[in-house]
Design goal:
By secondary structure, the chain is α+β, with helices and mostly antiparallel strands. The protein is about 35% helix and about 10% strand. The chain has three helices and two strands; from the N terminus they run βααβα. The chain has a two-stranded antiparallel sheet with strand order 1-2. Helix 1 packs across helix 2. It starts with 15 loop residues before the first strand and ends with a helix.
């Protein structure tokens, strides 16, 4: 088994902030913002103090950050895991 490494995701002025609602999940938000549900980890990693790593579900009514510079994040992820 390979240990997957995730990059740090710094705050950027172009990031989007949302308030979570009933029925939202990390994979659904990743699909909405990145057109790829497999990028759920980007949102999770950007909000370590608010989201749990062991669930796609989120508390309702909290503000979370959706990083917008997804290309750089994916490049960093690939570099760390190559």
């Amino acid at each position: 088994l390979k240990n997957i490494k995730y990059p740090e995701i710094p705050v950027d002025i172009s990031d989007v902030y949302i308030i979570t609602r009933i029925g939202e999940r990390l994979d659904l938000l990743a699909n909405k913002y990145y057109q790829n549900p497999d990028l759920w980890w980007v949102i999770m990693k950007a909000n370590p103090d608010k989201l749990r790593r062991d669930s796609f579900f989120m508390p309702i009514g909290i503000q979370i950050r959706i990083p917008s510079d997804i290309e750089k994040i994916i490049d960093d992820f690939e570099r760390l895991n190559s």
